[in-house]
Design a protein that fits this description.
The protein is mainly alpha-helical. Helix content is about 45%, strand content about 0%. The chain has helices at about 1-20, 35-40, 50-60, 65-70, 75-90, 100-110. Mean pLDDT is about 80; it is low at about 10-30.
């Protein structure tokens, strides 16, 4: 009987341990599998990398980090977004921090092809069904 109780205890413990979801292993919307290998900041959901603290300081004071994770752009696209925020949303001049912020954003939140969607069909020759 003791052996059966021990086995049941081990199975319950193992199932709880296996279902435990840590922030670093969970893929969040807007984060690729490659990004998640670097680790995810539990506070913001942003990729843990050099200049993360700089991005947190300049960006998440005004808006949610979800605005970053949901928007993917090239370096030029991120720069356009920053200029738009400076022009219309009263974002301050980022000064010497701007190149580092752009490098972080364009590296970890660059455009990616969605694996869930197929490529659009091209050069289709339609035929009439009889």
């Amino acid at each position: 009987m003791k052996q059966g109780i021990c086995i049941a205890f081990l199975l319950v413990t193992l199932s709880v341990f296996c279902s435990f979801d840590t922030t670093k292993t969970r893929l969040q919307k807007g984060v690729t599998a490659q990004d998640s290998l670097k680790g995810i900041d539990p506070e913001t959901g942003l990729v843990i990398a050099k200049d993360l603290m700089l991005v947190k300081a300049h960006c998440t004071g005004c808006h949610s980090s979800k605005m970053i994770t949901q928007f993917r752009a090239t370096k030029e696209g991120w720069l356009d977004r920053i200029r738009w925020m400076q022009k219309t949303q009263k974002l301050w001049d980022l000064g010497e921090a701007e190149p580092a912020i752009l490098a972080y954003l364009s590296t970890y939140y660059a455009p990616v092809k969605s694996p869930q969607r197929r490529e659009p069909l091209q050069n289709i020759q339609w035929y009439k069904l009889d």
